Every structure is written in structure tokens, then in C-alpha cells.
Amino acid sequence: MPGRHRTAPWQVADHFAYEREATAYDAVLGVCLTQPSIARRLGKRPQANAENVRANMLTEANVRRALEPCLEHQRRFRGALRRYETARTRMDYLHDPPSPETFVLGLLTLVFLLVLVLAPWTYVAGMAFLPAVAAFAVFRNPLWRMHVRHNTGELLMRSVMPVHERLADSREQTWRRELQARGVGPLMERVVEALLGEDSDSLLLPDGYEGLRSPRNRQYVIDNEAYRRLARKVAQREGGTIAVSGPRGAGKSTLLEHCAEEADFSVLVQAPATYAPNEFLLSLFIEVCERYLRDSDYDVPEFARLSTVSRVVRRLAPVVRRVVRFLCFALPAAALVVLGLAAAARSAGQRYEDAVRQHAQNLWTGVAGAAQDVWRGERVGAALALVLLGVLVWRLRRWGRWGALLERLRMLFAMVGGGLLVLAAPVSLFFDPGIRQGWRGVMDGAPLPTLLLGLGVLLALGIETGPRWTVGPIVLAGRPIFAWLLVGDLILAYRTPPVHAMVTDSGNPLRLACLLLGLLLLRTGRWTLPQPEPPLVTRCRNQLYRLQTVQTSSFAVTSGPPALVSAHTSSLSTVPPALPALVSDFRELLTSIAQERYARNGRVVIAIDEVDRLGTDTQALAFLAEIKAILGVPHVHYLISVAEDVGASFVRRGLPHRGVTDSSLDDIVHVQPCTLAESKSILERRAKELLEPYSLLAHALSGGIPRDLIRYGLRIMEIEEKTRFFELTDISRQMILEELAETLAGFRTLLGKQQWTRETSEVLLTFRGLMDHFRHLCPCPSTELHGALRHVAFYDLERQLGSAAQDVPDEVCRLIDEASAYVLFSLTLLDVFGTPDFARRRTAAALRTDGDPDLLAQARQELAGSPYSARSLIMAIRAAWRVPHHAGGTVPAIPRPRSSPCPLHTDSDAPDEPGSDGRARSQPEGGQRHSPRPAVT
């Protein structure tokens, strides 16, 4: 920073032997200061800035600590640097200015070398005599000898200098990497921590929170104890119905999705808010059929669009395009091949026609004679063999592997026949006398064209597997260049008489035909014939047609003479199945699917989510009673998410009587709110920037409910972006007060719907007075706001209203107690998180009873059950954290609220004191301040 004294790194002479070492150390300091983990913490507090960090890193003690892990690499760098400096000093010493003697000597040397290289060996002695004499004369002069020696040494040093320089650069880069990774980087982290002062973890340093922005993303889900329990229960059973019980937002849906994804076949459906058993089972049936078709790689039939011209055209357009493209290439190719091989095919047919006909006649005569002999009874043994063969054929009518056997025989015939035909074409060349004679002439008269032709053929054969390199539009390796090389070789070789005679041999078209036919057979051998549709796929498709369509058929009969025609029309329409038939068909189909998957060691899971949306526990139990008919399918796991009261009904089975849960459910898994460790894991997975104090804050506000935990984590980031606060005290107070304002607004709305009198309306005035304090929210500690919160937190209805308290309905009293307990909980959070020196106070509270931070989340959970038990727990927590609380007596009345916004936070978006990143570093009055303290030494 200009105007400040800064110690240069090379002034620490005890640790750096060369200035280049110190310069490299200083460069590493600059790189480490720009790393995100350090740069984002600079400027958040006044003393933690880049200038102070650099100054602390240049102290002798810190330089020694930074260099200790990398002393070996520094020693190697220093040795390479010493050799480089020595060579440069030697080169400077040997450097002489150019002199006439040097030019003369160089010219004589050049002439001598030219004579040795260019002159014939017979004239070397005579031509080299003059330069040798001149060089001898030069070397007799001492001054000339010194110049030659110095220039030769300088030349050698100049050739060695680049090697030393590159070695020094390489050792320097290695030392810098090690210094950054093991020395300066970790030490600078500690220096920044020390400069930040106490409670450095209370700084919020956001970087990215994609995990909080996508709460349903599977990559951020972690396995908890509930998932492990459910996985064990599923693994222990071959089937059954398992309920997943827990509060709203506890992660039941995520748990079901996780188990459904790991199953071999799974269907996840949502229970309707207003259910009808027939409609729910119908939708589940359709979903199972469609899922099985997709898993079997078959298309799900479409029923929405029927007989429209555009639909037909749209479906036929791709087929027509493929057929036209195929015909555009197939017809010309077939015409050219047929035209070229027609003469060879006719010649082969005429040559072998008589022989083939004679063999066929002989074979037919033999088979017919044998059949006649058996028919006349002359071959008894053959007759018995034929009878046994007929019985065997009849017994094999139900053998299910005929299709696979025929397919293997077809592939075997295609591969063997095609391979033989492909080999027959080149092998026949060795047995053709004309080809052998032409080959001798080629090797004797035209070996070069033949070699080029062979090279072209090899390149053409290697283009399928060879790599390709392209330089602009030029293909250096691939089909185009090899094809053109082959064409050029063929043209060059074809013009030579021996090659021309070999190419135009009369048997080559027949060989080419055999080669093409063999390649075609090999290609067909890899084809797979369309397999018949599996029975289960057919059943699923038929069920979809049955469940989603109404089918009608009609026919007409005409009778009488042509003048008198009468028509009789009958119509048949299918009726959707009733619930009993639907249940029976569904169980039958699901049983078949489960047996198929079970035979392959698979698992079938049917997950029914959102049953707790049905409303009351009575409606949920009625829903379980209605769908009980589809439960209990062998080898099928039903996973059903239910509310806590339904789970409690299953736990109480037999006390005093058995209910529908006992007969419908086989087991239950209770999903409890997250513990503090689990909440930390969730937030660390989704946003690593939320350090432990912020995880504790989100855990306490959410009560360990994962859905609320993620929501509060995102709320913390939102407040940071909105207010530009970085301190835990500011962010926590802003967040707690905003949540409290929203909650109290809801309570006041509920209280406003009650019946009030003039005497009891004092309650509404109390809540109105408290709400006025939230009109100008500010994270600054406010005595007025704190007094208003204490007044409501310890509100005594009888003391405030006197005898009029008896006229307040019980429901109103319950709402007042709930609001008062929640205000006390929020006041406790303000005292715990909104006060400076959180780390020290947490350590002290952990040594006392009820000082565990997890109890704050348990108090939030207890508020959902009873405000009275929650108040008792909150008071114990306040005592453990040494928070002052009201211990009886008169509670001060609600003070008057602020009439104007806080001057320190009038515009939270405008930074008060820009830091290194342009953000504000708020220092509210009475808030946490941090005095400079020495860094690590």
C-alpha cells in the first residue's frame, strides 16, 4: 500500500542466498493471496487485508516456517541457480571485444574446413598447406593465443548456459509449487485466521450454494439412519408392506424415491388429496403397465390422437424418407453390379448347369428308390427308424428352443458359407495358370507398379481401423486419400501389359461375384431376426387398451332379393372393469412381473407417497382400508408414507384393539428429525461455505426437519446477498427477527378472528405494539425491541387483564401461550447467536447441563407439541447459556418503537465501508467489533 513501509523479501538475508529466491517467494505470496479460499476472507474485517497478510508473511519467523517443508526443493533450486550464476560470471570474464586477429583466425579456419570438405582427397594436402602455415604463424603470437582461448571458452559457456538456465527455471517452478502447496498456502491460512480475530468461523463467506437451490437433486442426498433402517427391513423380507412415518418435511418422499431407484422394477405414485379407490387403482394399474413396457424397451401405445391426416403423415414421413434414400443408392448400385456380373453369371451357369442337374437327379433317384423300398416293406430297419423319428418329431412339438436353434443354424451357415466364399476368391488365384504366368511377367518387367498396387491395396484395407489426421481440408489418413492413392496405383499398374493381362483375366468377374456374395452372407449373419413379443409385454399392452379405450365393433347382414334389402346391425362395446375385477387383474399381472424379477434376483417396489395429504388420520386409515386388497402380493414391497398419527396407530396395535394398520402394514420405519451431526452433513454437502455456527442456527430454527433446514440455509444466503452482512451476529439477528415478524403476523391474524370485548382487547394492543417494532428491522441490538420481546415472552394474561381474563376463551388462551412460547424461543436464539463471542460462550455452555446446541432444535420440535413443555426446556437452555431471564415480578411494559429507520442501516444495499470485494463491512453500534491482534509468529 502506498505510504507504508514494506519489508522486501530479499532483506530476510538468513533464508535467501539469491535475490531470485526472494523474488520467487514474493511471487508465491501474490498467487496465494488470489486463491479463493483466502481472497474471499480478506477485507471482511479491518485488520484482515492483503497488506497486513503480506507483511506478516515476510517476518523472519513466518518465512522460516513457510520454507521448512520445502527445504530440499529450495536446496536443489539454489544449487541450479549457483551453477547458472557461476557459468554467467565465467562467460562475462572470458568475453573479449572483437579484434582483427580474431577475424583473421576465423577466416583461416573457415578456409581450412572448406578445403577439407569440398576438395578432392588427392589435393587436400597441397591445398591445406597454406592455411596450416598461416594458422601456425598466428598461434605463435601470445596475444592471439589468449584471444583464441577466451573466445573458445566463451563459445563453450554460451552453449552450456541455456542448459543451466532451463534447469534453474525447472527447479524454480518445482519449488514454487511445493512452496504454495505445503509452505506458504497453509501458513497464510493460519495468518488470515489470526488477523480475523476471534470467532472467525462466524464470518459468512459465500461462494456457491447450488445444493441449496435444488433441494430435490439426488446428487446432494445423503444416507441417514432412517434410510439404513428401511434398507435393512426391505432386505430382510421377500415382500410386504412397510410404512414410512414422520413429520412433514422429514424426508419421507426422498426416502421412497431413493429406495425406488435402487429396485429392479419400481413405480412411485402420489396419493390423491381427494381419493376414489377405483380411480387410484386404475392410475396405478396404468403406471405399472407403462413402466414395464419401458423397462422392456417397448413403446407405450398412444391413444390421444386417432384418425387425423396430419398424424398419419407425420408417422409415415420418416419411413418414406428412409425408403427413398435407400432406393436412391440401392437401385443404381444393383444395376451396376448386375450389369458387370451378368456375363460371368451366365458363363458359370452354362459351365456347371449339366453337372448340377446330374447330381440333383441322382440324389432324387436315390431318395425316391429308398422310399419305395420302405413302402414295399423291403427295408424293415429303415421303416422302424422312420417311425421312431416321427414319434420324436411329435414329442418335440412343445420344445421352446426351436427358434433359438434355427437362429443359430442360420448364423452358422451365413458365417461359414460367407467365410468360405470370401477365401475362395483369393485362393483361386494361385491355381489359375494364366494368373501365375502373368505374375512372373509382372515381377520380371514391372516390379514398381506392382509394389505401388500392393501398397494401395494395403492402405485401402487399413482405412477402416486406421486413425485420421486432418490439416485443414486435407485428410492425411482416412478414406479419401487412401481411395485416391488406390485409384492412382490401379491406373499406373493397369497400363503395364502384364498387369493388364492379370486384371482382364476371364475368371476375375466370377471371383468378384463370390467375394461379394460371401461378404453379403457375413453381413446377414450379424442380423437378428425380430423376436416375438414376450407374453408379459402383450398382457401389459392389452391391459392398457382395456383400461384406456372403449372398443366398439359392429356388423351388418343383408337378406332378400336385390330389390328388397334389409340390414341387421349389432354393436359390441367394452365396459371398464369394476373394482373387484380390476383388483384381481392387477394382482395377477403384478404377481407375474414379481416372479419374473425374483427369478433374476431382482426386487419390485411399489411406493405410494403423500398419503399424509389426505387430511386427518381417519381419512388416511380409510384410504389404507380401501387399497388393502392390492397389498400382500408375493415378492412385492409396498412402501407407503404416512403421517405420525397413523404410525402411532400401528405402534399401538392390540392396545386395546386392532385396527386397519395392523392388518394392512407389516412393519413401519419412523423418520425422526435430523440430529445436529446429520444437519451439518446435509448443509456441508449442499453449501460448504456454511460453517458450523450457521449450521447450528439453521438446525435450531428448523428443528432438524430437512426441508426447513435447506430452506433456512438458503435464507441465510439470501440475507447475505440482500444486506451484505458477513458477521454471525448481524445475519442471525436479521434472520431471526424476520422469521419472528412473519410468525407473529400469523398469530395476530388468528387472534383477530376471535371474539373480543373492551376489557380483553388489551391482548391485541400488546401484539400490535410488538409488531410496530418490526416495522424498521435492523440487526443492531435494540433495548426497546428486546424489552418488547421480553414483555410478550413472559406475558401473564391474568396479571394484565385481571378479572377480565376469565372471559377469554380457552382457544384464545392457547394461541397466546403458543405465541408467547415462540417469542421466548426467538428471544433465546437472539441471545445465543446475536451476541458477540459465540465460540467462547458455546464452549462454556457445553460444560453445563442443558448446554448442548442440539437442545435448541429439540425446543423447536417441542413447540409443535406443547408450549408449556417447550417453555420449560427453553428456560433450562437459557440458564445453561447464562442468558438473563425474567424470574418473576412485574414485566416492563412494551416501550415505544422507533419512529425512523436505523441510521446505520438505512440502505443495507449501499456498503458502509467497502472491502476488497466491494462489499460492506457493517459495524453497528453495540455490535461485535474486532481489534487488531498479532498474526501467527
Overview of the molecule:
- With 937 residues, this protein is mainly alpha-helical.
- Among the domains are: 188 residues, no CATH class; 167 residues, Rossmann fold, CATH 3.40.50; 72 residues, no CATH class; 215 residues, no CATH class.
- The chain contains 37 helices and 9 strands.
- The strands form 3 sheets. The chain has a 5-stranded parallel sheet, sandwiched between helices. Strands 3-4 form a two-stranded antiparallel sheet.
- A hairpin with a 2-residue loop joins strand 3 and strand 4.
- The longest helix is centred in the middle third of the chain and has 68 residues.
In short:
The chain has 937 residues and is mostly helical. The protein has 37 helices and 9 strands.
Kindly list the characteristics that best describe this protein.
937 residues, mainly alpha, Rossmann fold, five-stranded parallel beta sheet, two-stranded antiparallel ribbon, 37 helices, 9 strands, 62% helix, 5% strand, flat, disordered N terminus, disordered C terminus
